[in-house]
């Protein structure tokens, strides 16, 4: 009676199969924007009443910024909102093109202009405290006229592909098809503290203006120029500083390029999704062929083979050497074979084969 055969149970069964397609390169750049300080249940969208107001990019310097609205009627410090909003307005009105690293810290911003007349939003004494109190009493009107910081800026630097780094792709499903599109860069959009930079700039400009008004004008005197020779370490540090200064200068000089934002639920967003993230003609799509064997592929995706002992890699035994060792082991089982001792006997061959196995050919 034949024994009953138990059914084979697969611990990891295949549940679905998909045909994978890779979309062709696009003229547009595709960036993955991540918001690490925001929960996935709170997207910046029109449905959440926080649709982005403005988006801009500096493609050469590699920065992206996005302005999103804030709710000024709930959990909002109106006084701080007026102070920071006024600082932002004054700094921009007096020539500041931007703030933070994306603007090269605005190193070329001119000093704030001194206005000789009071604005319509100032009290009679024209002091900053009176200005803030005046705007707080007319908060609705101040908010409509741009005196309140009622939006938050998110931004980050574009992390592009590098050698020996993972390549990220976007996947879009269509039936039994999976279409992959290469991501040109990843940006982590974090809150930018431009309002703090603006407030600091206004305070410094005011202090400098008051000091210049109190001091007599200085005459410029010629100064001697000294040339020094730096060591290698000092030269490397100097080169790093020069490279950083050149980067900040280039970021400051590059203007922002404005982009048009389409909400995720709009027809334009769906049209771009179907047009750019899928292969149009799957029948004419070229087939992918691997130039690697299975062993080469496993070596490419695996960690390098390293002998922890530190010994050099030994050559494997040949078939002839292995046959000699097997023959020696078989003859050693014959009675009296253990008495033979010369190198040409079975015992000698077995010892030679064992030595070869330990020390290599």
From TrEMBL:
Residues 106-131, 204-226, 303-361 are annotated as: Disordered. Residues 204-224 have a biased composition (Basic and acidic residues). This is DNA-directed RNA polymerase III subunit Rpc5. It comes from Cryomyces antarcticus. Residues 336-353 have a biased composition (Low complexity). It comes from the Eukaryota. InterPro entries: RNA_pol_III_Rpc5 (IPR006886).
